[in-house]
Specification:
Blueprint (H helix, E strand, L loop, with lengths): L4 E4 L4 E4 L4 E7 L7 E8 L11 E2 L11 E6 L3 E7 H6 L4 E8 L12 E6 L2 E6 L8 E10 L2 E11 L3 H7 L11
Parallel strand pairs: 1-10
Antiparallel strand pairs: 2-12, 3-7, 3-9, 4-5, 4-8, 6-7, 8-11, 9-10, 11-12
């Protein structure tokens, strides 16, 4: 028997019935430009231990190989979390985000969601209240007792990747003038 699909609303959380690997997909049906998905692996202060714990298209794995960006396209990106390795990593949670690559905002993105799969369990979080944000935190997967939980966040940022990354302690080298 398979578990029913769990639909989270902003702020809700649920236990992940993990079986070694957790799969996270960030996707949309359409967007005005590419969505760049990423994972910030943060400590108990909400900061990355180093830039090596920022997983994205140009750095698709952390030093422990606990989070891997397996697949990245314009409208769909997939991550795989190895829970055994993640328990050993110096982080408390993995925060999954996306930014609009160039043109448009999340108000222009259709059917935007995060999907978490672990064994037969599926958890979804649909973004329904985005406005003119250009960066968005979808979900966080965090250590809880001997397992993991997922929380729906839905927090937006204006200004794209730079303010989002800086909120987690990652410095973005912007070689552009304002």
């Amino acid at each position: 028997m398979t578990d029913p699909i769990i639909h989270l609303s902003t702020g809700q959380n649920t236990t992940i019935h993990e079986s070694g690997q957790i799969y996270v997909t960030i996707q949309s049906a359409s967007a005005p430009s590419a969505l760049d998905a990423s994972c910030f692996m943060v400590n108990d202060r909400g900061q990355v231990p180093s830039d090596d714990y920022f997983v994205f298209y140009n750095q698709n794995v952390d030093p422990h190989r606990s989070v891997v960006l397996q697949h990245a396209e314009d409208l769909k990106s997939s991550f795989v979390l190895d829970t055994r390795k993640l328990r050993q990593a110096p982080v408390e949670k993995c925060v999954f985000t996306a930014t609009i690559d160039s043109v448009g905002t999340f108000a222009d993105v259709q059917k935007c969601q995060a999907i978490v799969r672990a064994g037969s369990q599926q958890i979804t979080y649909k973004i329904t209240q985005a406005t003119s944000e250009t960066a968005l935190i979808f979900i966080e997967i965090y250590k809880h007792q001997d397992g993991f939980k997922v929380r729906a966040i839905g927090r937006g940022f204006f200004g794209g990747l730079q303010p989002l990354a800086e909120s987690f302690g990652v410095e973005i080298d912007e070689n552009r003038s304002a």
